[in-house]
Amino acid sequence: MEDIYILGIESSCDDTSAAVLKNGIILSNVTASQEVHKAYGGVVPELASRAHQQNVVPVVDQALARAGITKEQLSAVAFTRGPGLMGSLLVGVSFAKGFARSLGIPLIDVNHLQGHVMAHFIKESEDDNHMPPFPFICLLVSGGNSQIVKVNAYNDMEVLGQTIDDAAGEAIDKCSKVMGLGYPGGPIIDKLARQGNPLAYKFAEPNVPGFDYSFSGLKTSFLYNMRKWVEEEPNFIENHKEDIAASLEHAIVDILMKKLRLAVKQTGIKHVAVAGGVSANNGLRNAFRDHAERYGWTIYIPKFSYTTDNAAMIASVGTFKYIDKDFTQIDVPAFSKVTFK
Ligand code: KG4
Fold first, then answer.
1. Is the Cα dihedral 284, 286, 287, 293 positive or negative?
2. CA 208 to centroid of ligand 1, rounded, Å
3. Distance between CA atoms of 239 and 226, rounded to whole angstroms?
4. 3-state DSSP call for residue 160?
5. What is the pLDDT of residues 160-195, one digit of tens each?
6. 56 CA → ligand 1 middle, Å
7. Distance between CA 174 and CA 65 in Å, rounded?
8. Tens digits of residue pLDDT in 102-111
């Protein structure tokens, strides 16, 4: 059988990433993160697309060099079509189209969310076989999404529940902003939480039916509590930041796991994966391990480098689509709206 070399390109938000997979096995995964947004406390779309423009060629060059292959060896180019920021997406989409066309090889469009889920199929080596069997349940948690997905096949994903307002990562980032911490807040909260008491403070719990999530009530109750406690004790946040972080993380993990348990119970599917930026969180990872032990789940936790936006996950979907000869026409547009299709 011919070897399948897929170049993945990801540029949906503020990371420019390129990766090469050979028959699903990782050869390289290069990501340029954009520091420019730190000063603004969030991603500035126009600055993001300008940075992608500067980064895309060197990042692809490095991905090919680290993979030890020439561009002529590539079988296809897979790229993130959406959802994401339109200006950011356009850089990767246009580059992928031009590159594939110039090499005379197929173009493969990939849904970013499916990419996150399929990060579990990136092989580290020939004998790496720890992958979930279909169907499995995936908790997809990032800065833009919080969803429980039933994954029937690489191209057949059913959203069982999702947030009706903020995403989990967004809530963490906003609360950390209230605390005066840097951006993104997720990793900072994670680090502080490891030294704090998760039961020190309580915040409002959502009451949403079914498998859906809500984080805006928690965020508001966090803000109001902080205001009140700072009024009573001006250095409250500085004096108790570890306990606050641990309690916030505990509240969010609790909300996420409650609905996930319900989904596992109702579907009877005990193969459970986690994906997306927030899956880097140690509290969430520990909760997964605890559930595996307590409820007999088989769990799938991605490597840290595959939790946040990366092109290896895009190349992973690309490999599946290449085998099915599911190629994309050159006139396909990028899309910004959140969808799994
Ligand atoms: O998947 P991702 O890189 O980007 C989106 O597509 O949204 O996720 C970014 C989100 C941010 O909200 C960030 O704060 C959060 O993931 N995050 C974390 C951790 N690392 C990143 N949240 C909690 N703990 C972490 N260790």
1. positive
2. 23
3. 12
4. strand
5. 999 999 999 999 999 999 999 988 899 999 999 999
6. 22
7. 39
8. 999 999 999 9
How far, in Å, CA of 223 to CA of 293, rounded? Answer: 35
Q: What percent of the chain has pLDDT over 90?
A: 90
- SS3 call for 306: helix
Radius of gyration, CA atoms only, the chain: 20
Does residue 223 have a known ligand-binding role? no
Which is nearest to 296 in space by CA: 260, 266, 271, 279? 271
> 32-72: per-residue pLDDT in tens?
988 888 777 778 888 999 999 999 999 999 999 999 999 99
DSSP 3-56: --EEEEEE-SSSEEEEEEEETTEEEEEEEEE-GGGGGGTS--HHHHHHHHHHHH
Return the beta strands (E) in the chain as ranges.
5-10, 15-22, 25-33, 76-82, 107-111, 136-141, 146-153, 156-162, 271-275, 298-300
Q: Is 281 annotated as a binding residue?
A: yes
What is the SS3 assignment for 130? coil
Best mutation site among 14, 38, 172 for ligand 1, i.e. most ligand atoms within 8 A of its Cβ? Answer: 172
Pairing of strands 5-10, 15-22: antiparallel
**Please, what are the domains in the chain?**
3-127+304-322 (3.30.420.40), 134-302 (3.30.420.40)
Burial 293-302 (b: 16+ CB within 10 A, else e): eeeebebbbb
Q: Classify residue 310 by burial, with Cβ atoms within 10 Å: 0-12, 13-18, 19+.
A: buried
Token duo for residue 168: 């989990």
The ligand 1 site (C-beta within 6 Å) comprises 13, 142-144, 169, 172-173, 184-187, 190, 276-278, 280-281, 308-309
* Residue 98 pLDDT grade (very low, low, confident, very high; cuts 50, 70, 90): very high
Name the residue at shortest CA distance from atom 22 of ligand 1: 186
Locate tokens 């947030």: which residue?
Answer: 163
The number of angstroms, rounded, from the C-alpha of 50 to the middle of its chain's C-alpha atoms is 22
309 marked ligand binding residue: yes
